[in-house]
Amino acid sequence: MEVTLQLAVEALHARYAHALDSDQLESWPELFTDKGKYRITTAENEARGLPLAVLYAEGRAMLGDRIASLRHANIYEPQRYRHIVSAVLVERESDRLVKSTANFLVVRTMENGESLLFATGRYLDRIALPDMKYDERVVVCDSRRFDTLLAIPL
Amino acid sequence: MLKAWPAEGATRVPYWVYQDADVYREEQRRIFHGPTWNYLCLEAELAEPGSFLTTFVGDMPVVVTRDPRIDGQGALHAFENRCAHRGALICMQARGRAERFNCIYHNWTYDHAGNLTNVAFGKGIAGKGGMPADAHPESQAPKKFRVEAIGGLVFGTLSSEAKALADYIGPQILPRLKRVMIKPVKVLGTYTQVLPNNWKLYMDNVKDTYHASLLHLFFTRFRINRLTQKGGVFVSDDGAHHCTYTERVEDRGDAYEAGGMRSAGSDTFKLEAPELLDQVDELGDNVSIQILSLFPGFVLHQIRNSLAARQVVPKGVDRTELHWTLFGFADDDEAMLRRRLLQANLVGPAGYISMEDGAATGFVQRGVAASPERASVIEMGGAHIGSGDSRITETAVRGLWKAWRSYMQI
In this structure, what are the phi and psi dihedrals at residue B365, rounded to the nearest 5 degrees? Predict the structure, then answer.
């Protein structure tokens, strides 16, 4: 195992989680490359070979639009996420590319204090070197169910 | 005992309709098991002979199958997912192919039409045990549906009195359904949105043409759908079904800005990647959005090039599951597939223009908690129920309640 690479990938995942959990949504697209892709899907769609995503963005501009829409257009009850990311596997593909698989768990807490185990699943990542940014992040949710709405990215 | 309707009639909907457990039970009997047609699946999901899937009609678990006996053209069947013996689920998988269906509990066997074909050890072993010759387990057989498909959409009814499906949908709405379902479809994927409210709050949200551009700011900020654009609404004679559409026209009006509304456009907010919205006029009539609903719980949408079937499944008085199946056409090229996948961002639980629906209907469920005797004011467009060319109306919502009261005899 390349310890330095492992720690660098885990640090990237940690920055990602904290950006979303601490409402620093504008810094979230910055964790992706210019053409970085982001896709939230379900284990069922993946198993059936179906391409549909719950949320899909091609490139940082679309990621930015998602955040702009959350800030200026979409209406949703105030809520916070808490990401728990674990079991991070790291595999170097080349000098330019690292693959990572990690587990995630997201608890969603509403203003009235109600907490819900909102989503669990796996992050399947392709990370560009040397910039250490996501070239692709596929969020595979274990469940096909989403409670009420999915506003903040997972 | 069901309660009385407010004296105002069509322009009021009392809040107990969303709260009352007796009403919920009666709906199962009079509506979901009554003379209505309920959406089951897309025909494309049962392409193979012998294939099956499981779903719900109201609270009832249902198996939908394609008969394996005739190559490729096997009939579609649907039957209650309940064994005649002890009531266990006959089929526990979401989908697949099977030669027959075996209840896991005592291995009773059913064919694809839901007929009981074998009772394990029914005659006992070596003359001992088994059922008496006059036992009649079929008396408790799973209920069978009449099944019909139109345009690749499969529906079922438990009622022998229900009209043929085309007549049930009626002449106002059927052409609008066929307008979308023009050729074989291909499923792109599915997911479920869990709504914290009564199922009817989702249906009257879908039929509420007045809210779309006011709640869903993404629409108006990008001028996708504003009530100043050309469009209209169709309502079936019985009020049960509706269809609303918007034409693809560049909107130059400033009614929202002049009215100082929350959803007014902003010059400073533009999409960095507007190609997400690029529409190809694949149906050839310049309609950018069409939302169609069939009573009791089916929605078909075309939003630009996003196509989907939405199935509304009640899960108790204050909980509803919305099963989304997004699809394209079987002959889509790669560019169209990519367009549909990008425009899927507009819909579903994370949809730019639909994520608010779950929140808004949940707000009603919570808001009316202590006021079952109070009522919604549904008076945009007066008391009229019918088609028209304005969407600043609640005509289709009133239609829903006209139909609901007729089925419920309230």
Answer: -55, -45
Nearest to B345 among A55, A68, A151 (CB): A55
Query: B113 touching A, CB under 8 A?
Result: no
Q: Which of A48, A54, A147 sits opposite B348 (nearest CB)?
A: A54
Question: Are the Cβ atoms of A149 and B272 closer than 8 angstroms?
Answer: no
Give me the residue from B190, B272, B358 closest to A144, CB to CB.
B190
> What is the 3-state secondary structure of chain B?
CCCCCCCCHHHEEEHHHHCCHHHHHHHHHHHHCCCCCEEEEEHHHHCCCCEEEEEEECCEEEEEEECCCCCCCCCEEEEECCCCCCCCCCCCCCEEECCCEECCCCCCEECCCCCEEECCCCCCECCECCCCCCCCHHHHCCCECEEEEECCEEEEECCCCCCCHHHHHCCCCHHHHHHHCCCCEEEEEEEEEEECCCHHHHHHHHCCCCCHHHHCHHHHHCCCCCCCCCEEEEECCCCCCEEEEEECCCCCCCHHHHCCCCCCCCCCCCCCCHHHHCCCCCCCCCEEEEEEEECCCEEEEEECCEEEEEEEEECCCCCEEEEEEEEEECCCCHHHHHHHHHHHHHCCCCCCCCHHHHHHHHHHHHHCCCCCCCEEECCCCCCCCCCECCCCCCHHHHHHHHHHHHHHCC
On chain A, the residues whose CB falls within 8 A of the CB of B195 are: 148
Q: What is the pLDDT of residue B72?
A: 53
pTM given for the model? 0.95
Over B177-194, what HEC string results? Answer: HHHHCCCCEEEEEEEEEE
Q: Does B328 touch chain A (CB under 8 A)?
A: no
User: What is the 3 state secondary structure string of B213-228?
Assistant: HHHCHHHHHCCCCCCC
Answer whether B359 sits within 8 Å of A75, measured CB to CB: yes
pLDDT one-digit tens code per residue, B170-207: 999 999 999 999 999 999 999 999 999 999 999 999 99
List chain B residues with CB under 8 Å of A121: none
- Do the Cβ atoms of A56 and B272 come within 8 Å? no
Do residues B276 and B306 make contact, with C-beta atoms less than 8 angstroms apart? no
- How many CA atoms are closer than 13 Å to the CA of B286, on its beta-carbon side? 7
B52 touches chain A (CB under 8 A): no
- Asked if A65 and B272 come within 8 Å (Cβ–Cβ), the reply is yes
ipTM confidence score: 0.97
Per-residue pLDDT tens digits for B318-375: 999 999 999 999 999 999 999 999 999 999 999 998 888 888 999 999 999 999 999 9
Cβ distance of B350 and A149 shorter than 8 Å:
yes
CB pairs under 8 A between A and B: 120
